[in-house]
């Protein structure tokens, strides 16, 4: 049976380190401070009878300095290994709503999938009026239960280490261990990467407002093109154009402030802006795709694996790989084609802040790129393309694909090739089972 493991979280000054010192018989700094005193991770084993469990103490989730460092430490603590429970400490408040607000801020770094691992610890509960302790506990339990967090424990400074350990073990035994995981994008989404003081916010606020204005104009545009016969291609082009426009804002910010990014605090401003761009663009992309006649992200729809380049109309079949940025073929970068991946359409900003769809004459451009690709030596125009934003083939184009004679014979021949058989036999022999 795997040993039990717990992680402790909470804002600075809530009493995590005092709680940890009591359990682990340590003496880490825990005096009052407006800043987080924990600047490294502490992990100790706690023994209660025959039961041993490990506890990790973490920096405050609201630290005002070394923000990125604290986020890296919090991420490391949460993803270090299997965890049975995440104990989130919240200071007792006579107003339960205020305690809930503090709790909401503390768990922002947790993905929703991990909320069922949370145990709420109401710290400094000895500050509650003794005559009303039972009623206050019931009120707290009901309030947190209604928010989806039914597991609570109340901690007072006069409790013994044994009492605290027994309560924690009960909660940990009720949960199967789970290893938490965050992708790089999720780290930017859930963790703080820059100081959110007034000075930091002011440095990026102007650019965020500009980003909001750009994205808002595209959000308003999408519903207006729903009656267009080529609406799917227009919407995908609008998504690409929007990303291009907001990335220009990010580049402008780096040009203006790049020379000042001489320390981590300055650099994290740039990360904070990139985080805002990613989140807002992701939200717009999700909304825009709802207006399309098909789901371009459906992995079960084989038609999503056949798409064409928006620069030269070359048709590609994706057999493996991701849905991100790649190149159309392997042509040299010096080829003279449009820099924008939505050259067929443009989206002009009007004086009132709305965007107008314009159709460009792309015939000459595409005929030139096709002739450059017709030598047989290379296929494709070599421009950057984003697979998830490429249009699918129309029904007429798909019908032409069906009529390609010998296509099935070619695929069958590939599968009968000796190299294909050898590779399949090798993969079948590899032991992919887990060992203890």
UniProtKB/TrEMBL annotation:
Entry-linked CDD domains: Ras_like_GTPase
Segments forming domain G: 7-121
GO MF annotation, one: GTP binding
Region of interest: Disordered: 417-436
Biased composition (Basic and acidic residues): 419-436
Domain of life: Eukaryota
TM helices/strands, residue ranges: none
Name of protein: Era protein
């Amino acid at each position: 049976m795997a040993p039990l493991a717990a992680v402790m979280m909470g804002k600075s000054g809530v009493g995590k380190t005092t709680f940890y010192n009591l359990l682990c018989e340590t003496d880490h700094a825990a005096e009052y401070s407006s800043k987080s005193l924990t600047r490294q991770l502490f992990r100790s084993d706690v023994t209660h009878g025959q039961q041993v469990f490990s506890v990790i103490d973490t920096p405050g989730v609201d630290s005002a300095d070394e923000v990125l460092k604290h986020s890296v430490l919090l991420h490391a603590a949460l993803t270090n290994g299997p965890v049975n429970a995440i104990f989130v400490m919240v200071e007792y408040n006579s107003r339960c709503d205020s305690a809930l607000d503090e709790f909401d801020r503390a768990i922002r770094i947790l993905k929703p999938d991990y909320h069922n691992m949370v145990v709420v610890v109401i710290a400094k509960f000895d500050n509650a009026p003794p005559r009303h302790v039972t009623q206050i506990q019931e009120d707290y339990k009901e309030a947190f239960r209604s928010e989806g967090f039914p597991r609570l424990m109340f901690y007072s400074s006069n409790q013994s280490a044994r009492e605290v350990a027994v309560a924690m073990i009960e909660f940990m035994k009720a949960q199967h261990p789970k290893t938490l995981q965050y992708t790089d994008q999720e780290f930017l989404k859930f963790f703080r990467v820059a100081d959110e003081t007034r000075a930091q916010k002011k440095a990026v606020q102007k650019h965020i407002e500009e980003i909001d204005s750009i994205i808002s104009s595209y959000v308003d545009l999408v519903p207006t093109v729903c009656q267009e016969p080529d609406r799917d291609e227009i919407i995908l082009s609008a998504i690409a154009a929007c990303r291009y426009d907001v990335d220009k804002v990010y580049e402008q910010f780096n040009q203006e402030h790049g020379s000042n990014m001489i320390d981590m605090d300055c650099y994290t401003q740039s990360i904070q802006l990139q985080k805002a761009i990613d989140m807002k663009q992701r939200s717009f992309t999700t909304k825009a795709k709802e207006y399309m006649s098909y789901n371009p992200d459906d992995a079960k729809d084989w038609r999503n694996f056949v798409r064409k380049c928006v620069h030269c109309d070359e048709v590609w079949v994706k057999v493996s790989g991701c849905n991100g940025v790649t190149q159309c073929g392997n042509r040299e970068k010096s080829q003279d084609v449009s820099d924008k991946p939505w050259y067929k359409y443009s989206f002009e900003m009007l004086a009132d802040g709305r965007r107008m769809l314009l159709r460009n004459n792309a015939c000459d451009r595409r005929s030139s790129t096709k002739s450059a690709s017709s030598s047989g030596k290379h296929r494709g125009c070599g421009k950057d393309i984003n697979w998830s934003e490429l249009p699918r083939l129309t029904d007429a184009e798909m019908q032409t694909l069906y009529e390609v004679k010998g296509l099935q014979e070619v695929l069958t021949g590939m599968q009968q090739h000796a190299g294909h058989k050898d590779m399949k036999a090798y993969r079948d022999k590899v032991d992919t089972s887990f060992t203890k």
